[in-house]
Amino acid sequence: MITRRTFLALTAAGIAAGAVGCGGDVATVRLASGEVGGFYHAFARLLAAVAAEAGTVRIEPVPTTGSQENLAMLTSGRVDAALALADSVQGERQPVVALGRVYENYLQLAVRSEGAIQRVTDLRGTRINLGAAGSGAAVTGERLLWAAGVNPGVDVDISHRPLRDAVAGVESGELDALLWAGGVPTDVLDVPQRLRLIELGELAAPMRERFGHLYDLVEIPADAYDGGAAIRTVGVANLLLAAPTMSDAAAGAIVELLVSRADALVPAEAAGTQFLDTRSLIGTDSVPLHPGAAAVYRRRHG
């Protein structure tokens, strides 16, 4: 795992460009992304842009509410590829394959700056937004609460609003907290002026013990939000998935872009860990690589 600064330095030093020729017609890949203004959608738009430049595959980003909706769209055949949190993929019964592990998603629990909430346990009796309906945060958020000893069905009043609506709800006092799983910084989170992030690092180990090894202890750096303090939180890897029916040529072309155009695929909301190098991209855990993706990784790394 490398930080964004190290990653950009390495790519600036010269990752060789490369692309797989698809021959004949260029495949069009509909990619389920996420909420407009979030990291998923920003990454999908950047991937579409570099694909247009390369001319080896077309990417059409599809705005969604997040991981769970993306998986449903992928397994039902409404899209060809999808972005999803690794823990949302866990237990998926329909066959999916991976093109790569692309970056770390950061859990961000935001409350009003002047509020009294200091820890997750302080959420008892409050109103919290656990991501939009269909988002990965809806899954991860409940696991976070359980790990802290907070019963999500009893101790808190849970809602599922889109991010911008949730931010407005916290700022107006209609909500007490919101959980967001995404990159840092997320511009719509007005940290530290109107919102404050809660330390979550102590819950990484309990989440691993209770729900599996997919949860990492990570740090949101002090300079991620202008004037914000460094805090520890929980990270979850994000996977770029594909339908098993995707052609080897299309899968290979996308992977070539991930590796050769990595410097153009880091959104502004990316102060943290990226996995856009061959050795890290292949770390898709229990999700098998698409054969076309695996072929590119073998050719590049052996």
Describe this structure in words.
This protein is globular. It is of the alpha/beta class and 302 residues long. 32% of the residues lie in helices and 23% in strands. The N terminus is likely disordered. The strands form 2 sheets. Strands 2, 3, 4, 5, 6, 7, 8, 9, 10 and 11 form a 10-stranded mixed β-sheet that branches. A two-stranded antiparallel sheet has the order 1-12.
Provide mean pLDDT, rounded.
89
Overall morphology = globular
Oligomer: single chain
- Cα(first) to Cα(last) distance is 19 Å
Number of strands: 12
Q: Which regions have little confidence, pLDDT < 50, spanning 5+ residues?
A: 1-23
- The secondary-structure class comes to alpha/beta
Show the helix and strand layout.
Elements (H helix, E strand, L loop, with lengths): L1 E2 H11 L13 E5 L6 H16 L3 E5 L4 H9 L5 E5 H4 L7 E16 L14 E4 L5 H12 L9 E3 L3 H10 L4 E6 L12 E3 L6 H8 L3 E6 L10 E12 L5 H13 L12 E2 L3 H4 L9 H11 L1
Parallel strand pairs: 2-3, 2-4, 6-7, 6-8
Antiparallel strand pairs: 1-12, 4-11, 5-8, 5-9, 5-11, 10-11
Structure in a nutshell:
Helix content is 32%, strand content 23%.
Tags for this entry?
302 residues, two-stranded antiparallel sheet, globular, disordered N terminus, alpha/beta
